[in-house]
Amino acid sequence: MSTIAQASPTVTPARRALALLAPIGPLVMAGWALTVPYQVADGPAQWIPKAAAGVARLQVSMWMLLAFALTAGVGAIVTGLVARRASPRLGTAGLVLTYVGFSALSFSGAGYDAAAVASVRAGLDVAATERILAQMHTFQAPSAGGAVFTPMMFLGVILLAVALWRGREVPRWAVLSLPASFLLVMFGGFIAMPVNALGWLMLAVGFCAAGLAHLRHPA
């Protein structure tokens, strides 16, 4: 009598690395939200003095934006790969839109902070710094980055959530954290930065759950 041994799927180091990196981008942005000395909704008159008083924190936050730029796409890719198993079209669309949104945010995020730090170091007053930032607005590409981020992230996480909900590989509570995170990220900047940070943490939870699902079902 012969028996057939069924080997469990091998989880490669590359897959482990992807699962580990999946939540890092949103976690970094949660740290960013708790580090910046200003609130996203602040106008130049409020934002520039806060930036001038918190140059060290602002410099740390810019390094965080760089870390986000290097890692954020991994979470979108891993979550999209898991979502694609249940719904190839929705999963692919959600992956692409979320990835584009993160890329746009990475491109536009640190420019104004760097200009504020440079202006403070050069000894410029608030009025002069405001004029510099106003001129930066005339460059359309950096300004467009922030405008692209909002709709791309919104549509991306919604499509990913719908596909993951159909697939049932990720717990329902983790799936719901994706659209909930968008609301907190968007409105948290107008309420309080800890609320914004909570939104990024919720997104990290969703990406982490998708990373674990990616490990459980290697292709």
TrEMBL record:
Superkingdom assignment: Bacteria
Keywords for this protein: Membrane, Transmembrane, Transmembrane helix
Transmembrane segments: 20-40, 60-83, 90-112, 146-166, 173-191, 197-215
Protein's recorded name: DUF4386 family protein
Record organism: Nonomuraea rubra
Origin organism lineage: Bacteria, Bacillati, Actinomycetota, Actinomycetes, Streptosporangiales
